[in-house]
Design goal:
four-stranded mixed β-sheet; two-stranded antiparallel sheet; 8 strands; 25 helices; 52% helix; alpha+beta
Length: 521
């Protein structure tokens, strides 16, 4: 039986959600941190002539961009951001907020700006007629006369405001290599060794591989490596932890000490804090092993730690939460948000009937992009303000008394409170920080899971971690608390938690197990 296959066309109607480029940009801006947002705005300022920086609030800029186009203003949805949401704390009335954001210029001012623009164009056209030889000679003479004034200290940037590139381990080692007494023939070998060091200062490349790369004998590389290992910081260019620690003891003149013997032969037992076994093998008291272990703990296992690495990341709060009377007031960080406005000159060019069609089309497209960027930043501020206000409502006890009273909170709670989707809350809290009376916290910090208490109420996981940290801090070093002991102490505080959960929280906080926390003497 043959199957009959036919080709045909049919028309179907269905609904499908399509994300426009503008919506994708708004979502992207919402989840950016303040430094990232500043970089995006700076890039847009360089590419879009319709934008220019302005020292005003995002709400005012958004209002101005909407007012410049009556049709866009009529179609705009959403309520205007209240004055207190933008950090104005109700300084202006509602009427002032909606109408005072745009300054009306008198006709004389517009005429002056138009005249200045015409003069600039005229000066540009006159550049072709300029006698450059005479100009350069005159400029050279004027420069000689004005040099003292231009070099005055008042015109210089403060030295402490001059950014410096962080010195890397490689640069520091190469400087020592050039200043050393190594023969010229050994300099390439030393440089190759230095270039193969990892960020911790260790040489992970095998000697045979370096020798083959340099086309020299492995003994030559070993000889130069011994010289490089004498460079600062002590322990640099070591091939493993044992060699690194022994080099530091040798630098201190302790190469024959008990600490050196422990590192050479019993480093594995030392890592497990099995002092009794080490004392038995070496035939010394346990207290003596404990003293040697303290000396070893002062050594640096990563010599390259203080050099290079990532640049420090500075936290800029997105919102400030202050207590005024009995209430908490949420204020947006207006100074850190880029402020933009539409360039009036190019808007007049766009309305000029004599402008070429391709120029008009380009400026119109740039104008739409600029309006959407300003509106996206304004909407970002609205969302962050609403989320922060909701967090304050849910976590009032935390702001009053600290982390011990932090309550369990999920994204769904805030989403239902402010009428937004959970994904929007997640983006609005990513890489955003709040300056609170209890310190600076990421907004995601306030969203935490809960642990059941003995009375049936939920206790925040962060609160449990803080209690575990306090127990470990106050424990006796000679007799540290085990995970089971911590779990029992938490049950005494009406927090039912299993031993394995204590171990999970302890590992998340970077606290070693009790066997590794034990000290002798």
């Amino acid at each position: 039986m043959a199957l009959e296959v036919k080709l045909g066309q049919d028309l179907r109607l269905r609904q499908q959600l399509v994300m426009t480029p503008q919506l994708q940009q708004a979502i992207k801006i919402l989840q950016l941190s303040l430094p990232e947002l500043e970089a995006i705005v700076q890039s847009e300022l360089e590419q879009n002539p319709m934008l220019e920086p302005l020292d005003q609030s995002p709400a005012e800029a958004a209002s101005e961009s909407e007012m410049s186009d009556p049709e866009a203003a009529a179609q705009a949805d959403g309520e205007p951001l209240p004055p207190e949401a933008d950090g104005l704390n109700g300084a202006n009335s509602d009427d002032d907020w909606e109408t005072g954001s745009r300054e009306e210029k008198p006709a004389s001012t517009v005429e002056v700006e138009a005249r200045d623009a015409a003069l600039e164009i005229k000066e540009l056209n006159n550049l072709e007629k300029l006698d450059w030889r005479e100009y350069l000679e005159t400029y050279s003479n004027n420069w000689q006369e004005s040099t003292p004034a231009d070099n005055d200290d008042d015109h210089r940037s403060a030295l402490e405001n001059t950014p410096l590139r962080r010195s890397s381990l490689e640069d520091y080692m190469m400087w020592q290599l050039r200043m050393s007494s190594l023969p010229e023939s050994d300099q390439p070998i030393g440089a190759t060794i230095i270039y193969n060091l990892n960020e911790d200062g260790y040489l992970e490349t095998p000697i045979d591989e370096l020798a083959a790369q340099l086309e020299v004998a492995p003994a030559e590389v070993e000889r130069v490596l011994a010289r490089v290992q004498r460079f600062d910081p002590p322990g640099v260019a070591a091939r493993d932890l044992r060699e690194c620690l022994l080099a530091q003891l040798q630098n201190l003149g302790m190469e024959e000490s008990l600490a050196a013997r422990i590192i050479s032969n019993h480093l594995d037992l030392l890592e497990k804090h099995r002092y009794a076994e080490i004392a038995k093998v070496l035939g010394v008291p346990v207290e003596t092993v404990g003293q040697a272990a303290k000396i070893i703990s002062l050594l640096e296992p990563k010599p390259g730690r203080d050099y290079g690495g990532d640049e420090p990341t500075y936290v800029v709060p997105d919102v400030y939460i202050h207590k005024v009377g009995e209430d908490y007031v949420v204020t947006l960080n207006r100074d850190a948000v880029p402020r933009l406005r539409l360039a009036g000159y190019y808007q007049r060019v766009l309305n000029d009937v004599d402008v070429a069609p391709e120029t008009r089309e380009y400026l119109a497209e740039r104008l739409r992009s600029a309006r959407w960027l300003v509106k996206s930043i304004y909407q970002r501020q609205q969302t962050i303000f609403k989320v922060a206000t909701s967090i304050v409502k849910f976590q009032r006890a935390f702001f009053d008394h600290g982390i011990s009273l932090l309550k369990p909170l999920v994204l769904k709670d805030v989403a239902e409170d402010i009428g937004m989707h959970e994904s929007t809350i997640s983006r609005a809290t990513a890489n955003k920080y709040a300056h609170t009376p209890q310190g600076i916290f990421e907004l995601k910090f306030f969203f935490t899971s809960g642990v059941k208490g003995a009375g049936g109420e939920d206790v925040s996981a962060e609160t449990v971690k803080e209690q575990i940290r306090g127990m470990v801090t106050s424990e006796t070093p000679q007799n540290p608390l085990s995970d089971q002991a911590i779990a029992e102490m938490l049950r005494a505080r009406q927090i039912n938690i299993a031993r394995r959960t204590v171990a999970k929280y302890r590992q998340a906080m970077g606290i070693p197990p009790s066997a590794n926390r034990k000290q002798i003497g």
